[in-house]
Amino acid sequence: MKKMKYIIFIVCCWMGMQACQKDVGLGADIEIIEDYTLPQEGASNEANERILQMFKDYNSYVLYQFSNKDALWTQSTGASSSQTYVVKEGDPQYVDEMLDYIEDIWLRFFPADFLKKGGMPYRIFLADSVYWDRSDVSAGWYVCYNYRINGDAVIIAGMNQVTTMTAVTKKSRSLELIEALWDYYSANGLIDVPDAFYEGTDYTTEPEGPLTDERNLEAYRNRGFLPNQWGSEWYQWGSSWGTGWDNAKQNDIDSYMYSALHRTDEEMEQYLKYDLIREKWNVLLDYYKNIYGIDLRAIANAQYK
After folding, report:
1. pLDDT, tens only, 118-140
2. Cβ(131)–Cβ(85) under 8 Å?
3. How far apart are CA 259 and CA 265, in angstroms?
4. What is the β-pairing status of strands 147-150 and 84-89?
Protein backbone atom coordinates (compact mmCIF):
# COMPACT_ATOMS: atom_id res chain seq x y z
CA MET A 1 0.00 0.00 0.00
CA LYS A 2 2.80 2.36 0.94
CA LYS A 3 4.55 1.54 -2.33
CA MET A 4 1.39 2.37 -4.30
CA LYS A 5 1.06 5.76 -2.53
CA TYR A 6 4.70 6.50 -3.34
CA ILE A 7 4.14 5.73 -7.06
CA ILE A 8 1.03 7.92 -7.16
CA PHE A 9 3.00 10.75 -5.52
CA ILE A 10 5.76 10.55 -8.15
CA VAL A 11 3.23 10.51 -11.01
CA CYS A 12 1.50 13.62 -9.59
CA CYS A 13 4.82 15.46 -9.32
CA TRP A 14 5.68 14.53 -12.91
CA MET A 15 2.31 15.77 -14.17
CA GLY A 16 2.75 19.00 -12.24
CA MET A 17 6.15 19.59 -13.81
CA GLN A 18 4.74 18.99 -17.28
CA ALA A 19 1.97 21.51 -16.60
CA CYS A 20 4.54 24.14 -15.55
CA GLN A 21 6.35 23.69 -18.86
CA LYS A 22 3.29 24.69 -20.88
CA ASP A 23 3.06 28.22 -22.21
CA VAL A 24 0.91 30.36 -19.99
CA GLY A 25 -0.51 33.66 -21.18
CA LEU A 26 0.77 36.74 -19.36
CA GLY A 27 -2.20 38.92 -20.15
CA ALA A 28 -2.39 42.05 -22.26
CA ASP A 29 0.77 43.88 -23.31
CA ILE A 30 1.82 46.63 -20.91
CA GLU A 31 2.07 50.06 -22.47
CA ILE A 32 5.36 51.81 -21.73
CA ILE A 33 4.73 55.48 -21.17
CA GLU A 34 7.58 57.87 -21.90
CA ASP A 35 8.59 60.28 -19.15
CA TYR A 36 8.38 63.26 -21.53
CA THR A 37 7.07 63.89 -25.01
CA LEU A 38 9.54 65.22 -27.56
CA PRO A 39 9.63 67.52 -29.35
CA GLN A 40 8.35 70.24 -27.06
CA GLU A 41 6.75 73.35 -28.48
CA GLY A 42 8.12 76.85 -28.87
CA ALA A 43 11.68 76.37 -30.11
CA SER A 44 12.74 76.26 -33.74
CA ASN A 45 12.50 73.05 -35.74
CA GLU A 46 16.28 72.91 -35.86
CA ALA A 47 16.55 73.14 -32.08
CA ASN A 48 13.92 70.45 -31.56
CA GLU A 49 15.73 68.18 -34.02
CA ARG A 50 18.95 68.65 -32.07
CA ILE A 51 17.17 67.77 -28.84
CA LEU A 52 15.67 64.63 -30.41
CA GLN A 53 19.11 63.60 -31.62
CA MET A 54 20.54 64.06 -28.12
CA PHE A 55 17.86 61.78 -26.76
CA LYS A 56 18.67 59.15 -29.40
CA ASP A 57 22.39 59.44 -28.76
CA TYR A 58 22.48 59.67 -24.97
CA ASN A 59 18.99 58.68 -23.72
CA SER A 60 18.79 62.07 -22.02
CA TYR A 61 15.89 64.48 -22.11
CA VAL A 62 16.85 68.09 -22.83
CA LEU A 63 13.83 70.14 -21.74
CA TYR A 64 12.89 73.79 -21.99
CA GLN A 65 9.25 73.46 -20.92
CA PHE A 66 8.73 72.09 -17.42
CA SER A 67 7.13 72.76 -14.07
CA ASN A 68 9.04 73.93 -11.03
CA LYS A 69 8.02 70.73 -9.25
CA ASP A 70 9.30 68.55 -12.07
CA ALA A 71 12.67 70.27 -12.36
CA LEU A 72 13.28 70.06 -8.61
CA TRP A 73 11.88 66.56 -8.03
CA THR A 74 14.15 64.12 -6.25
CA GLN A 75 13.80 60.82 -4.44
CA SER A 76 12.62 61.55 -0.90
CA THR A 77 15.05 60.64 1.87
CA GLY A 78 12.54 61.19 4.62
CA ALA A 79 14.20 64.41 5.71
CA SER A 80 12.22 67.61 5.54
CA SER A 81 13.62 70.91 4.29
CA SER A 82 12.39 74.45 4.63
CA GLN A 83 14.53 75.63 1.72
CA THR A 84 12.52 76.83 -1.26
CA TYR A 85 14.12 76.71 -4.69
CA VAL A 86 12.57 78.21 -7.79
CA VAL A 87 13.32 77.44 -11.43
CA LYS A 88 12.06 79.77 -14.15
CA GLU A 89 11.68 78.80 -17.78
CA GLY A 90 13.47 80.81 -20.43
CA ASP A 91 12.22 82.23 -23.70
CA PRO A 92 12.02 79.34 -26.23
CA GLN A 93 13.41 81.60 -28.96
CA TYR A 94 16.83 81.18 -27.32
CA VAL A 95 16.86 77.36 -27.23
CA ASP A 96 19.18 77.20 -30.26
CA GLU A 97 21.69 79.47 -28.54
CA MET A 98 21.29 77.60 -25.26
CA LEU A 99 22.13 74.32 -26.97
CA ASP A 100 25.23 75.96 -28.43
CA TYR A 101 26.03 77.21 -24.94
CA ILE A 102 25.93 73.82 -23.20
CA GLU A 103 27.94 72.35 -26.06
CA ASP A 104 30.54 75.08 -25.63
CA ILE A 105 30.87 75.06 -21.84
CA TRP A 106 30.34 71.34 -21.17
CA LEU A 107 29.62 68.68 -23.79
CA ARG A 108 32.56 69.30 -26.13
CA PHE A 109 35.00 68.26 -23.41
CA PHE A 110 33.55 64.78 -22.91
CA PRO A 111 33.55 61.98 -25.51
CA ALA A 112 30.30 60.49 -26.78
CA ASP A 113 30.93 57.12 -25.11
CA PHE A 114 31.27 58.79 -21.73
CA LEU A 115 28.11 60.83 -22.23
CA LYS A 116 26.20 57.69 -23.25
CA LYS A 117 27.22 55.90 -20.06
CA GLY A 118 25.69 58.57 -17.83
CA GLY A 119 27.98 61.51 -18.39
CA MET A 120 24.90 63.32 -19.62
CA PRO A 121 22.31 63.09 -16.82
CA TYR A 122 18.87 61.73 -17.61
CA ARG A 123 17.25 65.19 -17.52
CA ILE A 124 18.79 68.51 -18.54
CA PHE A 125 16.59 71.51 -17.85
CA LEU A 126 17.43 74.62 -19.86
CA ALA A 127 16.23 77.47 -17.66
CA ASP A 128 16.35 81.22 -17.45
CA SER A 129 17.17 81.19 -13.74
CA VAL A 130 17.31 79.02 -10.64
CA TYR A 131 17.41 80.57 -7.19
CA TRP A 132 16.93 79.96 -3.50
CA ASP A 133 14.01 82.00 -2.21
CA ARG A 134 14.89 83.48 1.21
CA SER A 135 12.15 86.12 1.18
CA ASP A 136 10.59 84.50 4.24
CA VAL A 137 13.71 85.56 6.13
CA SER A 138 14.16 88.97 4.53
CA ALA A 139 12.00 90.58 1.85
CA GLY A 140 13.62 90.52 -1.58
CA TRP A 141 16.37 88.07 -0.55
CA TYR A 142 17.09 85.59 -3.36
CA VAL A 143 20.26 83.55 -3.84
CA CYS A 144 20.83 82.94 -7.57
CA TYR A 145 22.70 79.98 -9.06
CA ASN A 146 24.12 79.28 -12.51
CA TYR A 147 23.23 75.59 -12.23
CA ARG A 148 21.71 73.08 -9.84
CA ILE A 149 22.25 69.33 -9.82
CA ASN A 150 19.22 67.55 -8.47
CA GLY A 151 19.24 63.74 -8.41
CA ASP A 152 19.55 62.55 -12.01
CA ALA A 153 18.96 66.03 -13.38
CA VAL A 154 20.97 69.16 -13.98
CA ILE A 155 19.38 72.58 -14.31
CA ILE A 156 21.42 75.07 -16.34
CA ALA A 157 20.43 78.73 -16.07
CA GLY A 158 21.08 81.67 -18.35
CA MET A 159 18.80 81.15 -21.34
CA ASN A 160 17.54 84.72 -21.63
CA GLN A 161 21.06 86.11 -21.21
CA VAL A 162 22.99 83.61 -23.30
CA THR A 163 23.22 85.79 -26.41
CA THR A 164 24.94 88.59 -24.47
CA MET A 165 27.32 86.53 -22.32
CA THR A 166 30.99 87.46 -22.55
CA ALA A 167 33.79 84.98 -23.09
CA VAL A 168 34.95 85.57 -19.51
CA THR A 169 31.51 84.72 -18.14
CA LYS A 170 31.29 81.56 -20.26
CA LYS A 171 34.66 80.32 -19.08
CA SER A 172 33.79 80.99 -15.45
CA ARG A 173 30.46 79.18 -15.76
CA SER A 174 32.06 76.30 -17.63
CA LEU A 175 34.55 75.62 -14.84
CA GLU A 176 31.86 76.02 -12.21
CA LEU A 177 29.57 73.52 -13.93
CA ILE A 178 32.28 70.98 -14.77
CA GLU A 179 33.60 70.97 -11.20
CA ALA A 180 30.09 70.26 -9.91
CA LEU A 181 29.51 67.58 -12.55
CA TRP A 182 32.86 66.02 -11.69
CA ASP A 183 31.57 65.44 -8.15
CA TYR A 184 28.36 64.03 -9.66
CA TYR A 185 30.34 61.67 -11.90
CA SER A 186 32.46 60.54 -8.97
CA ALA A 187 29.46 59.95 -6.70
CA ASN A 188 27.79 57.86 -9.41
CA GLY A 189 30.86 55.73 -10.11
CA LEU A 190 31.49 57.15 -13.59
CA ILE A 191 35.03 58.25 -12.74
CA ASP A 192 37.54 57.48 -10.04
CA VAL A 193 41.03 58.48 -8.93
CA PRO A 194 43.93 56.27 -10.03
CA ASP A 195 45.66 54.48 -7.17
CA ALA A 196 48.99 55.42 -8.73
CA PHE A 197 48.30 59.07 -7.88
CA TYR A 198 48.61 58.34 -4.15
CA GLU A 199 51.60 56.00 -4.41
CA GLY A 200 54.86 57.46 -3.19
CA THR A 201 53.16 60.21 -1.16
CA ASP A 202 53.44 60.18 2.64
CA TYR A 203 50.04 61.01 4.12
CA THR A 204 51.02 59.89 7.62
CA THR A 205 53.80 62.24 8.68
CA GLU A 206 52.69 65.82 9.22
CA PRO A 207 54.81 68.45 7.42
CA GLU A 208 57.21 70.67 9.26
CA GLY A 209 55.69 74.07 9.95
CA PRO A 210 55.13 76.87 9.55
CA LEU A 211 55.03 76.71 5.77
CA THR A 212 55.69 80.44 5.63
CA ASP A 213 59.27 79.36 6.23
CA GLU A 214 60.80 78.92 2.77
CA ARG A 215 62.71 75.78 3.78
CA ASN A 216 59.59 74.13 5.16
CA LEU A 217 57.60 75.06 2.05
CA GLU A 218 60.33 73.65 -0.19
CA ALA A 219 60.24 70.37 1.72
CA TYR A 220 56.44 70.35 1.47
CA ARG A 221 56.59 70.75 -2.32
CA ASN A 222 59.20 68.00 -2.57
CA ARG A 223 56.72 65.74 -0.82
CA GLY A 224 54.34 66.32 -3.73
CA PHE A 225 51.83 68.86 -2.42
CA LEU A 226 50.26 71.73 -4.38
CA PRO A 227 48.52 74.82 -2.96
CA ASN A 228 44.73 74.86 -2.82
CA GLN A 229 42.40 76.86 -5.04
CA TRP A 230 43.04 80.05 -3.06
CA GLY A 231 46.79 79.73 -3.51
CA SER A 232 47.39 78.85 0.14
CA GLU A 233 48.48 75.61 1.76
CA TRP A 234 45.47 73.50 2.74
CA TYR A 235 47.45 71.77 5.48
CA GLN A 236 47.65 74.96 7.54
CA TRP A 237 43.90 75.56 7.62
CA GLY A 238 43.49 73.14 10.51
CA SER A 239 41.46 69.98 11.04
CA SER A 240 38.42 71.85 12.35
CA TRP A 241 37.77 73.02 8.77
CA GLY A 242 38.26 69.56 7.27
CA THR A 243 41.40 70.81 5.56
CA GLY A 244 44.06 69.69 8.02
CA TRP A 245 46.28 66.64 7.88
CA ASP A 246 43.46 64.29 8.90
CA ASN A 247 41.97 64.82 5.44
CA ALA A 248 45.29 64.87 3.58
CA LYS A 249 44.47 62.46 0.74
CA GLN A 250 41.24 64.19 -0.22
CA ASN A 251 42.78 67.65 0.01
CA ASP A 252 45.68 66.47 -2.11
CA ILE A 253 43.53 65.24 -5.01
CA ASP A 254 41.31 68.33 -4.71
CA SER A 255 44.27 70.66 -5.11
CA TYR A 256 45.54 68.74 -8.16
CA MET A 257 42.11 68.70 -9.78
CA TYR A 258 41.75 72.43 -9.24
CA SER A 259 45.14 73.01 -10.87
CA ALA A 260 44.33 70.68 -13.76
CA LEU A 261 41.15 72.58 -14.56
CA HIS A 262 42.16 76.15 -13.71
CA ARG A 263 45.89 76.81 -13.78
CA THR A 264 47.60 77.56 -17.07
CA ASP A 265 50.76 75.79 -18.21
CA GLU A 266 52.69 78.94 -17.34
CA GLU A 267 51.24 79.00 -13.83
CA MET A 268 52.14 75.33 -13.34
CA GLU A 269 55.81 75.73 -14.29
CA GLN A 270 56.84 76.75 -10.78
CA TYR A 271 55.35 73.53 -9.37
CA LEU A 272 56.32 71.00 -12.06
CA LYS A 273 60.01 71.49 -11.30
CA TYR A 274 59.43 69.21 -8.28
CA ASP A 275 59.82 65.56 -9.31
CA LEU A 276 56.98 64.09 -7.27
CA ILE A 277 54.53 66.84 -8.22
CA ARG A 278 55.38 66.35 -11.90
CA GLU A 279 54.98 62.58 -11.55
CA LYS A 280 51.57 62.82 -9.85
CA TRP A 281 50.46 65.49 -12.31
CA ASN A 282 51.25 63.31 -15.32
CA VAL A 283 49.64 60.24 -13.73
CA LEU A 284 46.41 62.17 -13.26
CA LEU A 285 46.29 63.77 -16.71
CA ASP A 286 47.21 60.56 -18.52
CA TYR A 287 44.68 58.50 -16.58
CA TYR A 288 41.65 60.63 -17.41
CA LYS A 289 42.74 61.06 -21.01
CA ASN A 290 43.54 57.39 -21.67
CA ILE A 291 40.78 55.75 -19.62
CA TYR A 292 37.88 58.19 -20.09
CA GLY A 293 38.93 60.27 -23.09
CA ILE A 294 38.80 63.48 -21.00
CA ASP A 295 41.55 66.03 -21.61
CA LEU A 296 41.63 68.14 -18.45
CA ARG A 297 44.09 70.59 -19.91
CA ALA A 298 41.78 71.22 -22.87
CA ILE A 299 39.24 72.44 -20.34
CA ALA A 300 41.78 74.67 -18.62
CA ASN A 301 43.05 76.14 -21.89
CA ALA A 302 39.69 76.42 -23.67
CA GLN A 303 38.82 79.59 -25.54
CA TYR A 304 35.36 81.11 -25.71
CA LYS A 305 33.73 83.66 -27.98
Report:
1. 999 999 999 999 998 888 788 87
2. yes
3. 10
4. unpaired
Phi/psi at 85 (5° precision): -105, 145
Of 154, 153, 174, nearest in space to 162 by CA = 174
DSSP sequence for 171-194: HHHHHHHHHHHHHHHHHTTS----
Contact indicator for 144, 129 with CB cutoff of 8 Å: yes
**Rounded CA gap, 165 and 130, in Å?**
17
pTM value is: 0.83
Provide the pairing of β-strand 123-133 with 61-63: parallel
Between CA 71 and CA 255, with CA 171 as vertex, the angle to 5 degrees is: 90
How far is the CA of 44 from the CAs of 54, 90, 123, in angstroms?
A: 16, 14, 20
CA separation (Å) from 35 to 38, 63, 70, 191?
10, 11, 11, 27
Task: Say how far apart CA 109 and CA 59 lie, in whole Å.
Answer: 19
3 state DSSP class of 230 = coil
Element spanning 142, H or E: strand 142-145
Contacts of residue 58, Cβ cutoff 8 Å, sequence gap at least 6: 112, 115, 116, 120
> In terms of Cα–Cα distance, which of 180, 179, 225, 235 is closest to 200?
225
Q: What is the pLDDT of residues 27-83, one digit of tens each?
A: 444 443 468 999 999 999 999 999 999 999 999 999 999 999 999 886 544 444 456
